[in-house]
Structure formats: C-alpha cells, structure tokens
C-alpha cells in the first residue's frame, strides 16, 4: 500500500511538471485510482474486523449458540451482581457484541430466575442480571448464574 502511494505521488509530480493538455484528465484518473486504493484498504479493514467478530462469537458459543454459564458474584453482602458489563470485563472476548438472549437460573439448579419471584434491578440480554438483597421480601437474593445467546 505504501509503495503504491509513493508511486502515485511520484506520477502526480511528473504529470504536474509535464503540463500537457491531457494533464488534467490524467490527474483525474490518478485521483480516482488513489480513491479506489484507499477504498480497498478500508474494505479490507472492515473484512478483518468482521472476521475478528466472528471468531469472538465462535469462541463464546457452545454448539447451540449459548455461552457457558457465568457466576461472578454472591448475594452477600448486598447483591448478586451478574451484570453483562462485569462479565465482559472479567471474560474478555468471550461474549459477542450484541447478545440477543439471556437465561438465568439459581446456581447449580434448573430453577429459572423467573420462577423465584424475586425482583431484579436488571434482567435483559444487554444488561445481564442484577438482584439486590434489599429489594427482596426475605431480604436475600438467590445466587444466580446467567448465560447469553449469541446468534
Ligand atoms: Ca430470596
Ligand atoms: Ca451469582
């Protein structure tokens, strides 16, 4: 890429000195070529980014699109904080950019969070799950684990 640019700059310089009637047409062609090259470079960077995103998702998903279960916190002393932002920080590259689903269950059981009748501050694919002890009738959240769906 750098070499191509150098050649083009050199050509532009020569054409500028030639000052023929065709010079402006040649210049236009060169400018177009330059724009094409820059466009190519940008496209190839986009492709690389797309590839990296795919790899991140491939690593995170099981055979069926779910990540593994995350359990980073315990209800004591104040809350069970299973927020997506925390999971991302602690597990770099393991969760895709836009999870479209979330499942939460009482850790080590098959009891879905939705069946505990506890109140959650956050519970969505882009937030994760946050349960505060103070919000519960019995003063204590269950210990939850969550996983994300990466389409
Ligand atoms: Ca409880
Ligand atoms: Ca937990």
UniProtKB/TrEMBL annotation:
InterPro entries: CILP1/CILP2 (IPR039675), WxxW_domain (IPR025155)
Keyword annotations: Glycoprotein, Secreted, Signal
Claim: Glycoprotein is one of the keywords in the record: yes
Boundaries of every WxxW domain copy: 66-150
Signal peptide: 1-18
Subcellular location: Secreted
Gene Ontology cellular-component annotations: extracellular region
Protein name: CILP2 protein
Lineage, broadest ranks: Eukaryota, Metazoa, Chordata, Cephalochordata, Leptocardii
